[in-house]
Write a structure and sequence with these properties.
Jelly Rolls, mainly beta, single chain
């Protein structure tokens, strides 16, 4: 009986210490973040993407190590040249129509169309390209740092060679 009582007291003390140190019940508001469509703070997309898109970060920092979630808003006709990533990329179409093709050459006729609700993931070595047909928003999530490596380095908007 003494062992049982000792165990209960010890368990209570451990739980109380965990709450004081920021344990699961300490600050639920810090552990949950929700967004409605109007809460998103859109800014310019990273310079590694072609100009014209906007980005909203929902979770983490995509440019640092760790989990991230972000949304990319693209105008009609926006194109991302053939590229790949260093880590698996998860994509969910939120609105609009998102076209994706596989390979080293941008070929619109060979692209597959994805509508809102569609989900896909691509392994790091998969070369792909994309296009927004109409105003389109996609959600990207994965493990950072998020990077884009263009098949043709001249396609990188950050490189002087990409300017024509």
């Amino acid at each position: 009986m003494k062992r049982l009582m000792f165990s209960l007291v010890a368990l209570t003390l451990v739980a109380a210490a965990a709450q004081q140190k920021g344990g699961p019940a300490a600050k639920p508001a810090d552990q949950v973040k929700t967004y409605s469509g109007n809460d998103l703070q859109w800014g310019p997309a990273p310079a590694v993407l072609p100009a014209g898109a906007k980005l909203a970060v929902l979770e983490g920092n995509p440019m640092q190590s760790g989990p991230y979630t972000m949304r990319l808003q693209m105008p009609a006709g926006y194109k991302i040249p053939p590229h790949h990533h260093h880590a698996r990329e998860h994509v969910t179409v939120i609105s609009g129509e998102f076209l994706v093709g596989m390979g080293d050459k941008f070929e619109e006729a060979k692209m597959n169309s994805f509508s809102p609700g569609a989900f896909a993931y691509l392994e790091p070595t998969v070369h792909h390209y994309a296009m927004a047909k109409g105003d389109t928003v996609i959600q990207l999530h994965g493990q950072g740092p998020w990077q884009i490596i263009y098949v043709n380095p001249a396609d990188n908007p950050q490189k002087p060679a990409a300017k024509k």
